[in-house]
Amino acid sequence: MDINVTAPINSLGYGIVGLNVVAGLDRLGHRPALWPIGEVEAPEEQHEMLRRAIAQKDLFDSRAPSLRISIQSDLAQHVGRGPHCGLPIFELNRFNALEKRHLDAQDLLFVPSKWAKRVLVDNGIPEARIHIARFGVDHDIFRLTERIEPGATVFLNVGKWEVRKGHDVLAEAFNSAFTRRDDVRLILLTPNPFHAEGESREWADVYRTSSLGDKIEVIEERLPTQRGVAELMARADCGVFPYRAEGWNLDLAEMMAMAKNVIATNYSAPTEYLTPANARLIEIERLVEAGDGKWFYGQGEWADFGDAQVEQLVAHMREVHRLKQSGELRPNIAGHRTMAEFSWDATARCIAAALAA
User: Is 185 in the same domain as 298?
Assistant: First the structure.
């Protein structure tokens, strides 16, 4: 099948999804014609596939389906006269007028979770137009790691600096959970390429100047490849993700695929794969207006992360540390088995099947 795809190809969330969807379609024998959004960044092993997909646009079929992978306010531009299909990744439960116009203009919409489908329906998008195409994990990169190294308990958070991702409460929780006598570390891979100069430094300084700042490592530059991210994850005992809302959270899913213990908020799109058996869950009590004074100004709602949620996060981190130091911490095999069901080929297969129907 010929499929015209417009998508970013880079190391950010949308770019990783774009790359893996195009690669999955190619592996399944389809002919994706790729119009990249922005500069192309990809590992060398994907260069030949990308050259083939980009070259295919010179021979594109104007009647083939057009799939645009982008934010929900940027879905209007499509290639050709075939069905117009969007794949947005969103975190909030309400859309503004511009977003609704772009979403409603699509013949088909693909989303990664049942939660996202429900949000679209609640916002007036006809259910018949919506298809769930769950995102995957590159299992060649994010491999099972069953050995737990002795030594300090290492917590890892991956995700750009944002209130939405809970970076305002993680420092408080880490410093409440432990004392200087505890053999613990917190690593943060959190650069935000959309920040103005100095903003990321302000976030980092909150952690570095905290009472346990010497136990915290902030990695200020994006790692150039996903293999580098996987190597960092392999060093950790537990991923900690106290988000208020997520459109999927690739990093959480990838750590689970590696059988890493994880702590995560039981809300929004990650509920597609999180269970009490494969994660230590932070339960929420209610939703509140989403506002951070930077990206969100009360357009929709997200999880209220109050004192009770911070207390749960503290308790989960203390328990992971206790188990690690007593030699009782085990690999998260339940998480690994869950994520074994999630592959990018399956994502591409869902998309192709809906387009062929």
Answer: yes
